[in-house]
Amino acid sequence: MVVAIALVGTGCSDNGTGAPATVVVDSDQIQIPVGYAVAIRALPMRDDEQLSSSMEIDLRSLRPGMLGVDHGLRDREFVIYGSQVGTTSVDVYFGGSHVQEITARVVPAGP
Q: What is the reported pTM?
């Protein structure tokens, strides 16, 4: 069974400036400015259909000092935040098995 994890943004917090930012979070890529955080929900998918599995999903940043990933308050919710400009990846685990790697970029926050 091939499983992919869909990431759905549920909220965003800026660095206090109120300036608009480009935040991209999906199954193929993550892009977030330094100082920003975004809440997401991870959904297990197969053939474009959501699975109703109760198996655990976990997201782990390869470079947590650059891009942080923490568990949210609800099941399958996570908070992703940019700490340092650069490129890394987020490993996705479903039921304890590695199923996906997502390229992640932390970009400058802008003016």
A: 0.79
